[in-house]
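Sync notes, pocket subgroup
Present: LS, DG
LS reminded everyone that the earlier model was apo-only. Rerun requested with zinc ion included. Inputs:
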Amino acid sequence: MKSFRKELWFNTPSRRAFVNITDDVDSLLKESGIKEGLCLVNAMHISASVFINDDERGLHKDYEKWLEKLAPEKPYEQYRHNDTGEDNADAHLKRQIMGREIVVAITNGKLDFGPWEQIFYGEFDGMRRKRVLVKIIGE
Ligand code: ZN
């Protein structure tokens, strides 16, 4: 069995962002040379997510609105986590909802997606360097 590990780095210009990383993951899959196996992609920070869904702008706006309803960024003092001097309690909650990681099957050297599936990095406390782990195992 082969094993491949790489990191993808991000520094989003805004506090929140959704970044399509499908092509990046696909490039790493090609680099790995693995044809059959599994590909794990996970955020390495507790205020960011990796998830799979549609690359459609309206949907991404819907996510932003929905997440702000569930866990509004402000007022900061509504969260006990922010008593520590941090301001990112909402980002931890948004990360929990959108998930830490995804796993995609690899078949014939390709990411074996369903219709319209794309991989996204979900940033909820950006404007600093953060990373995503890509681990591919198989043969
Ligand atoms: Zn925090």
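DG: The chain has one domain: 2-138.
LS: The chain is about 25% helix and 35% strand.
Action: DG to write up.
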